[in-house]
Amino acid sequence: MAAGKDLTSGRARRAMKIGGLASQVGSSYLWTSLRRPFLASSRYERELLDTHLKNARRIVEGSKQLRGAFMKLIQMLSTRADLLPGEALDILKATQSSVPPMDYPLIAKQIKREFSKTPEQLFASFEHEAFAAASLGQVHRARLKSGEEVAVKIQYPGVDATVEQDLGNLKLLLRTLQAIAGDIMRQKIDTKTIFTELAERLREEIDYVTEARNIAEFNRLLGGDREILLPRVIKELSSRRVLTMTYIDGYRLGDVFGTETDAKLRAWVARKYYCLLWRQILEFGVLHTDPQPGNYLVTYHPKLGILDFGSVRHFSEPVRKASLHLAQAIIAGDDRAMAAALVKLGYLDRAQEPAPMVKIIYMLFEPVITDRPYHPDEFDAIGKASAVGEIAFEHKLYKSPRHSIFLLRALIGLDGIMKGLGAKMNYAALFRECVRHAAKARGAD
Question: pTM of whole model > 0.85?
Fold first, then answer.
């Protein structure tokens, strides 16, 4: 889609595009499946992987053309190792990179619709060129009449009008992927639960009033942490489709990745991000679930800055408490307590044999039970996902509670960021510290 066009143009075209995409994906898998009896096992595996990769590229290309809600939904799906293999998910993750910004006249018109004034009337200065652009909107630097620098996030015109249509179209694509997961990857997927959670998060992300509340909440929760830097909302210049925040300057988290960056700085960032994530899960029950490196900054102090609070998951108190109990059981190696926590979290029924699920937990939490300096690259995420899938299939472990969907996204993001930073440290000791801090903060043992 050209940058200058409104997202609402051609709603029938969007439906045809997504419907055609689902049809192409489904047909290619059907053809590969029909050829299976005539191919040697190794040849079939190669053809299947090639089909996965081709379809991932089709999905990425379709999402980039349509932008908006559908692209955001594909970003959310890019962490689902149960729907596609790791190589294909790596292609889907391309949707997380920046997209070309929309033309300034469209953005200026959107601001005028919200406030009945042009950017030039509202701000002392407003940069016409966006410094960041994503699936749902783009961000411009500006200066308030008081002289304060701000970042102005503007939702693309027409995004909200396409959301419900794109959600309906997503159901078709999910049904196709569900059939693929069942017939080819031997996975049983609850697409209804996935769809419900994706829909809820997406509807929240297009409402900047909700995002403003999230920013205020994180300022309250993390206000005492002097190593965290958060934006502050300028209420009088914010609305449902425009969000004006104080500007935070620093390096993008991705710029700190790699051995060319000072090892002490990378270790500091790794420790800070790691502890921040577990604090959200175990202490607050409020989680920033969009772990793209572009949503975090490292300032010169150093401090860790957090950006973009559109995707935030609130967990119920029973879920938060059970998560803490699970973490404590992992540290203690207490299989019985682990099983009880997994039942409370909805991963197991009371009548189920817990041993296979407990085995999965030990596999997935290898870095936090390996009590020695551990390099993130030692954790083979793709290999673990494959092994977990085999155990789940064998023992019919198909329960996937709603709260787990975006938690999984955050944990996969944690693995990617730790690998990017490449800091070798004792993550088991760090995890124990995080769990003790959460238990103390909540008054629990």
Answer: no
